[in-house]
Design a protein that fits this description.
It is built from four helices and 22 strands. It is mainly β. The protein folds into two domains: 3-122, Roll (SH3 type barrels), CATH 2.30.30.40; 131-253, endopeptidase fold (from Nostoc punctiforme) (Alpha-Beta Complex).
Length: 255
């Protein structure tokens, strides 16, 4: 196996080839990977093709595909909270932000398996990032619990929240906050920020957090849970407690 597609709702990506090891990320249904090596006929080390992130998965979560199919971009992404994919005589519930490989007129293909889908989706090639779309997509996640490495409504981390929402807006960005901060154009002052800009926060040594600005005064981010808080030039102020939680480092615009 050299290339594969994620064939389950969300596949845990682990730092080492053991179930007990840290989950560093998740890959969603339909996302594609290159297989780098195999271990014990159970585990594979992969590199995800949309962000070059590496880690270990179990082979059972993958559907083998060709290099040509793997490198063809998925134009369509699910936008419903829970989405039903039907393949043959069984169905699978996939999360918000899943890819729909080779999808057209209600049907698609996952490797050599044909599937149908009649839910909500967005065409990434026609997506126009802007305040209305940012508000619509991000607010669906409110109160989703924080989980290190997560990328679904059942658990998501700060950079995963940013990455999946940007994916639905047609923008592919790296997985981790420090990587995301290296891209885009710098917005020098908070008062010049617009809805959809990314705000990055540090602990005086390194970037430790990221969120999506809704305006120059509010931010939606995954901290404990996905929530909306106040932001000023010093950083985030928790809307419930009034306490400052994160120190602002920089603001980037990716479109």
């Amino acid at each position: 196996m050299e290339y594969a597609i994620i064939a389950v709702p969300a596949a845990p990506v682990r730092r080492k080839a053991r179930h007990q090891r840290e989950m560093v990320s998740q890959l969603l249904f339909g996302e594609r990977v290159k297989v780098l090596k195999e271990k014990d006929n159970l585990w594979v080390k992969i590199r995800s093709l949309h962000d070059d992130y590496e880690g270990w998965l179990t082979k059972a979560l993958l559907k083998e595909t060709t290099e040509k199919d793997a490198k063809r971009n998925s134009e369509f992404v699910t936008t419903g909270l829970i989405n039903t994919i039907v393949a043959g005589d069984h169905s699978i519930k996939v999360p918000l932000g899943s890819s729909l490989p080779f999808f057209s007129e209600g049907a698609g293909r996952l490797g050599d398996t044909v599937y149908s889908f009649n839910g909500y989706f967005i065409d990434r090639t026609q997506s126009q990032p802007g305040p209305e779309l940012v508000q619509h997509l991000t607010h669906q996640w409110l109160n989703a619990p924080y989980m290190w490495g997560g990328r679904t409504l059942f658990g998501i981390d700060c950079s995963g929240f940013v990455q999946v929402n940007y994916k639905m807006m047609g923008l592919d960005i790296p997985r981790d906050a420090w990587q995301q901060a290296q891209q885009g154009r710098t917005v020098s002052k908070l008062k010049d920020a617009v809805c959809g800009d990314l705000a990055f926060f540090d602990d005086k040594e390194e970037i430790v957090h990221v969120g999506i600005l809704l305006s120059s005064e509010s931010i939606i981010h995954a901290s404990g849970k996905v929530r909306i808080d106040t932001i000023d030039k010093k950083g985030i102020v928790n809307s419930d407690t009034g306490k400052r939680t994160h120190s602002l480092m920089s603001i980037k615009r990716h479109w």
